[in-house]
Amino acid sequence: MTVQELQKLFVEVYGHQEDAVYFAPGRVNLIGEHTDYNGGFVFPCALSFGTYLLLRRNGTKDVHFRSVNEPEVLTVALADVTTPLAKGTWANYLMGVMTQFIKRGVEFTEGYDFLIWGNVPLGAGLSSSAALEVVTAYALNDQLGTGYDRTELAKIGQMAEHEFAFVNCGIMDQFASAQGRKDHAIFLNCDTLEFDLVPVVLHGIKVVISNTHSPHKLGDEYNDRVRECHLAVDQLRTVRPGLKNLAELTQAEFDQIKDAITDPIALKRARHVVSEVQRTVDAVDYLRAGDIEAFGKLMNASHVSLRDDYEVTGLYLDTLAEEAWKIDGVIGSRMTGGGFGGCTVSLVKDEAIDEFKEKVGKAYTEKTGLKADFYIAEIGDGAKKI
Ligand code: GLA
Description:
Elements: H1 3-14, E1 20-29, E2 41-42, E3 44-57, E4 62-67, E5 74-77, H2 91-103, E6 112-118, H3 128-144, H4 150-164, H5 172-179, E7 184-189, E8 195-199, E9 205-211, H6 220-236, H7 251-257, H8 264-288, H9 292-308, H10 314-325, E10 330-336, E11 343-349, H11 353-368, E12 373-376, E13 384-385
Parallel strand pairs: 4-6
Antiparallel strand pairs: 1-3, 1-13, 2-7, 3-6, 4-5, 7-8, 9-11, 9-12, 10-11
Helix pairs in contact: 2-3, 2-4, 3-4, 3-5, 4-5, 6-8, 8-9, 10-11
């Protein structure tokens, strides 16, 4: 839909024009997976697709939520926005964000009419939910003049996800949606939240996103992984008191003390995290030095580690990545985001893109019975007012 079409729909639904229109993007992570909640590095970019939000102050004590994808307007009294609706209700994301403002001392004196539309494929691991949280936080910050910076808006989105979607996610997705910059990736230290914007200059190469359309969505497994990493830290503290995060350990330090992790699953999870943090640092160095081939090899190694040690890939993502590796013009390919279903991200030479889509698509359908979708990613800006 276009912004004009959304504005027209807003008038049809609410009988008034909107006060303002906002946008926040989805993201794709190039490398640094399942490191964010371990205090490690990530390297995501914002995409050109995302979520649009139109709003108007309505002078009542009710908040109205309407999504283009849902037929009904949901009404929640202002006094009730701090109580989540049934698990999975989409308006929870907006209510979760409003609740974070309230927790920071902001008072809502009147309700809003909201209209939402997004073009991030849902459940594809491209952060449609973070886009919704961040667009809401950005819009309310602008409307209320609360003056939170983009990092704070990302934290607001993350806490909304924890408290209203019950996923104990790291900061990466909301950060990328809030801080993204066109044609740049964000090299983010998730412990300190310091970051660098690194130009993604690819000559004759595209970032290709391949969607598994897998029925297996990321669920409780995510919170299980967070717990397993905490267990590893707890056990390592017996030999390294004061250890805060797995990402504090270099590979050499980890190798010295890893036997303190007696739980075999926690040991595998920790091994992934420690190695992935190093891969991310190295990959960014290679990209800065223009060595894209070396960057691609680390993407492949990241996938292998996520497959074998972190165990968040599965048939769908493994098939897409492993079929991609067989093609000459593929520089690198790996799962991106939380895992299980969702998408892979690949760097593909321009002249190999048709072959990539055809061969990977065909092999994927043969092995899984599903049809994959391919998008050429455009790296866009973070949240903004339109
Ligand atoms: C999901 C979470 C992120 C991050 C990734 C894995 O997208 O929301 O915080 O942990 O998984 O890297």
